[in-house]
Amino acid sequence: MNTRVATGLILASTIALAACQKKAPEELPPPPTQTATPTPTTAPAGPTVGTQQHFVDAVGVANTVVYFDTDRYNIDAEDSAKLQTQGQYFSQYPQLNFTIEGHADERGTREYNLALGERRANAAKNYLVSIGVPANRIRTVSYGKERPVALGSNEAAWAQNRRAATIVIN
Amino acid sequence: MKYLILATVGLLASPLLAQNQDLGQPMPEGGEVETIEEGEGLTGSVSFEGNLDDLGIAIPGFATDADVATPANQNGTAALGKELARVITADLRNNGLFKPTGPDALPQPAFAEINSPNWPTWSNRGAEMLVHGYVRARSDNRLTVGCYLYDMALQQQLVREGWIVAPADWRRAAHKCADLVYSRLTGESPFFDSRIAYIAETGPKDNRTKRLAIMDSDGANHRFITTGRSTALTPRYSPDYKKLSYLSYVDGNPRIYVYDIGTGRQTLVTESTNPTFAPRWSPDGRWILYSMAVNGNTDIYRVSSSGGTPTRLTDAPGIDIGGSYSPDGSRIVFESDRSGSQQCYVMNSDGSNQRRISFAGGRCATPEWSPRGDQIAFTNASSFNIAVMTPSGGGVRTLTRGWQDEAPTWAPNGRIIQFFRTERNSGKATLWQVDLTGENERRLPTPVDGSDPSWGPILP
Q: Cα angle vertex B202, ends B197, B207, to 5°?
């Protein structure tokens, strides 16, 4: 899953950990309005606005989920690019409220993973708020290690499960 | 009689509340056990000098004065007497205690022999100890059960006790007899007459059904509390067994609820829209600890179990979670990643004087203070084994070697630890226990998979 290089990662995590207890991603994204509307605009005969399918079609499925390293919750460059795409979508459809689900891999104790999933969901939420999405449109929920998407017990599966997934539900 | 009253209360519970619940039928509260013939001679010597693992104990069927009908056994009190002896035998055998021989391999003593054993009958059976007992149906429908322990070499009674129980509680009398024998021979506190709350699991790894369930310490009287419609996690019995606190996604969010067993009603541990995790009771039942995430930052709070304003006990940025009281209620051991990884910390029960105790290497998670006070069990969340240490963090001993073992919980007497073990790839979880010595590891039989065991104290 992750094409990230370990050293870069550690650096990024360290910086983020030191800096980010409040929010503040290290590189601030461009304001959402001026870059606006490259991808989503026309929705022909297809899923309607307000469905998960519409959101997925508009932003691309890969942009609906951000991934984290073990025990981490920082938003790195790859994550912020994805969240900016999401931010554009949600500024285009200001009537939509949505949920960010935080998850952890199975290699952690249950309660800690619930708290970690909550922290990850909030990291993604805080990023979206920092680029202009109103906080009251975003609900967070943690599932800890209770809802894995990859079922193996190996590094590749765990990397896919350490995630914050954005879900549009009416 | 008591059951009838409680069932009525259950039916009156607000239907509005029920809509929002994932709860099955309300269950009756346990009955009272009245102790009679309080044991004497608890300090007298025992003739056996050797390894207690090798101590032979003969446990023939309990005798009855008159074989009469009882709601506790469809075949009457004589059959019930055999069942009582079987339960005691299984208690001792399953926990690796002594060398018990049960009623199916022994002659049946007569009622008159119970307080005057026929020694020649028992002398050539390789048993150093002899358990005798009786069961008698009372006119009020309850049962009287007597339990006697004899030293074969001394031909002397070592201890005796009796109990009056409701027919539905007949197994408790057997557990009390097993506890009496165990305590008299080892000098340890009892533990059999207790219950376990846990999470029963079914279904595939990416869509597990997780239900709150309870059972006696030997797995009997198993009961599902929630229906499985919503995920339930991490239950804890209140010390008086009248309530269960646990996490439920019943409204879509992870929240701690307090379920009142007698009335079937449940309430949020705190009125807040924030997620709450990790419920814990104080040993006296007056306080509940819970952990709450606010903007992603989780801290530990304490609230009176009768409600009121919560107090925040930790304020470190990051995840502070869990908490387990020392037996005297003065201190709390908890988990925090404030140092960069999960480690165990101790604080006073008002939140003051927080200090890290785990420095042995590896992540320290889910610490649980022993009811004896001298040990803290925890999950080594780097190697995923169950380990113990002293309250100052020394003397670390690893007790288990599963692929992933976590969430230790203590037997009421602090001699046994239960935990759950997750299997690699399948994600199948099962309940296990191990002695404080690291010996006698065994899987606990449950109807389906299980996790998050929580062992309550000795029943009141």
A: 115
Query: Is B322 an interface residue toward A (CB < 8 Å)?
Result: yes
B365 close contact with A: CB closer than 8 A: yes
Which residues in chain A are contacts of B381 at CB distance < 8 A?
108-109, 112
* Amino acid, res. B130: L
pLDDT tens string A109-156:
999 999 999 999 999 999 999 999 999 999 999 999 999 999 999 999
CA distance B330 to B347: 9
CATH number of the B34-186 domain = 3.40.50.10070
| Chain A contact set for B366 (CB, 8 A) | 109, 111
List domains and CATH numbers for chain A.
Answer: 6-167 (3.30.1330.60)
- Alpha-carbon distance A21 to nearest alpha carbon in chain B (angstroms): 7
Size of chain A, expressed as the number of residues it contains: 170
ipTM at complex level: 0.92
Q: B311, B291 in Cβ contact below 8 A? A: no
Whether residues A123 and B296 touch (CB distance < 8 A) is answered with yes
Q: State the pLDDT confidence band at B49, using cuts at 50, 70 and 90.
A: confident
pLDDT at A69: 97
Residue of chain B with shortest Cα separation from A102: B296
Q: Domain B194-458: which CATH class? A: mainly beta
Q: CA distances (Å), B337 to each of B1, B121, B320, in order? A: 52, 63, 7
Q: Do A112 and B252 touch (CB under 8 A)?
A: no
At B113, list the tokens: 């022999």
Q: How far apart are CA A150 and CA A138, in angstroms?
A: 26
A11: how many CB neighbours lie within 10 A of its CB? 11
Which chain B residues are Cβ-neighbours of A111 within 8 angstroms?
234, 277-278, 291, 321-322, 335, 366
- Chain-centroid distance, C-alpha B6: 24
- B312-356: pLDDT as tens digits: 999 999 999 999 999 999 999 999 999 999 999 999 999 999 999
pTM for the predicted model, two decimal places: 0.88
Nearest to B206 among A21, A110, A147 (CB): A147
Query: What percent of chain A has a predicted confidence (pLDDT) above 90?
Result: 72
B155 CB near a chain A CB, below 8 Å? no
- B124-154 residue pLDDT tens: 888 999 999 999 999 999 999 999 999 999 9
Instruction: Give the containing element (helix H, strand E) for B387.
Output: strand B385-389
Q: Which residue of A has its CA nearest to B249?
A: A143
- Best residue in A114, A120, A122, A163 for a mutation probing chain B (most B CBs within 10 Å): A114
Provide CATH 2.120.10.30 ranges for chain B: 194-458
| Calpha distance B143→B169 (Å, rounded) | 9
Contact between chains at B425 and A116 (C-beta distance less than 8 A): no
Tokens, residue B61: 């069927």
- CA angle centred on B64, ends B62 and B68, rounded to 5°: 130
